[in-house]
Amino acid sequence: MIKVLHFADAHIDLARQGRHDPQSGLPMRVLDFLKALDTIVDAAVEQKVDLVIFAGDAYRDRTPAPTYQREWGRRIMRLSSAGIMTLLVIGNHDVSPASGRAHALQEFDTLQVPNVRVISKPCLLGPDDLNGLPLQVIGIPWLNRSAFAASLDNEKQSNESLNDQIERELTALVESLMDQLDPKLPAILTAHATVQGAFYGSERTIMLGADFVLPGSLVRDPRLDYVALGHIHNHQDLNKDGHPHIVYPGSIERVDFGEAEEQKIFVTAEIERGHAEMQEHLLRGRKFFDHVAKLENPETVNQDILKAFPGEKQLADAIFRLVVYYPREWDALIDESDIRRKAESAFEFHFIRRPQIQARIRLPQDKSVSEIPPIEVLNRYWDVIPAKGRDTQALNKLAEDIFETAQRGQSEKEAG
């Protein structure tokens, strides 16, 4: 039985704005990410895991500041000193789009740090590569699009898109590596990639480069015993009730308000040939609250805003965003200074006002309502007031029948 710890998408220097810690000089939000990383490293050492897999994206980009490299290096060296075999998969934020440039984790390769191996090219690692562990690992880093495209045989290129060609070649590459697996040993596939069927969180806004998609059937191959993925920040197991587990642990700390409701975790798994037992471990990061208030009574504006606040204990040291929608004419009724005083215990408070202007139907300047056919007025109304799923075509047909009946009745009345 091999015990593996799997985490991904650390992005330790992503949140560099805001207050700084007076002792370390580091941004407080960076310390949040480092605390999560410390929790993971502590667990690996205390539980004496056999292998740690980091499935990519250590930093915000491939040119981290030396201070952040130092902090990342300290944690990885703890694993090295504890004798824990550690695999570092290169992610899309760790690699330059230009071919031949060094990646963000290059120093671990260059210095040949004991017990640490960087996966910067597709590979199959066996016991000799893993300090004698009776295990095999297929490693797929984020593949440079331009370099991969350059390797394609131009003479054999078909009418399919470049992305389709790259995905086909990538699938063939993974299949060829799986064909080399020893059926007697447990096998892990680790990749920084998108797998078909995975659900994206908010991280699409910070992704770099186009995604190549691995087919779900490829990673569900029974020759594999665990699939350790990175790249998507939303934790999910794409084969929860089957074998192998196909796991995105998600990012180690909330990146933005799009991840406010997500639980952040890392995973340990006990793996043997044909079976794996997985356990999720909660990372208690900084709390995020993303609330909305829609004001409906001008006499209770500020009270209604405060009702949207989390409880006092929850608010302390949390990052809180409150978006308030209200009629524009109520702007002066909002006591923002008092509201901000009520949020002083929060680590950050984002108060966003969204005054609403009543929509109006715009008519041609040379025409009055009486000069415009009723059905045209109705169509202008649909343009201003969204239909929200209503069948406007059917409603227009009904309206035309009503207008026609009314007009016929008016004509008969005038003729009589």
Automatic annotation (TrEMBL):
Keywords from the UniProt entry? DNA recombination, DNA replication, Endonuclease, Exonuclease, Hydrolase, Nuclease
Domain Calcineurin-like phosphoesterase: start-end pairs: 2-234
Q: Which GO terms describe its biological process?
A: DNA recombination; DNA replication
Query: Which GO molecular function, any one, fits this protein according to its record?
Result: 3'-5' exonuclease activity
Q: Establish whether keyword Hydrolase is in the entry.
A: yes
Q: Pfam families from the xrefs?
A: Metallophos
User: Mind telling me which InterPro entries this protein's record contains?
Assistant: Calcineurin-like_PHP (IPR004843), DNA_Repair-Maintenance_Comp (IPR050535), Metallo-depent_PP-like (IPR029052), Mre11_N (IPR041796), SbcD (IPR004593)
The similarity annotation says:
Belongs to the SbcD family.
Cited function:
SbcCD cleaves DNA hairpin structures. These structures can inhibit DNA replication and are intermediates in certain DNA recombination reactions. The complex acts as a 3'->5' double strand exonuclease that can open hairpins. It also has a 5' single-strand endonuclease activity.
On assembly, the entry states:
Heterodimer of SbcC and SbcD.
Q: Which NCBIfam families match?
A: sbcd
- From the Swiss-Prot or TrEMBL record, give the protein name: Nuclease SbcCD subunit D
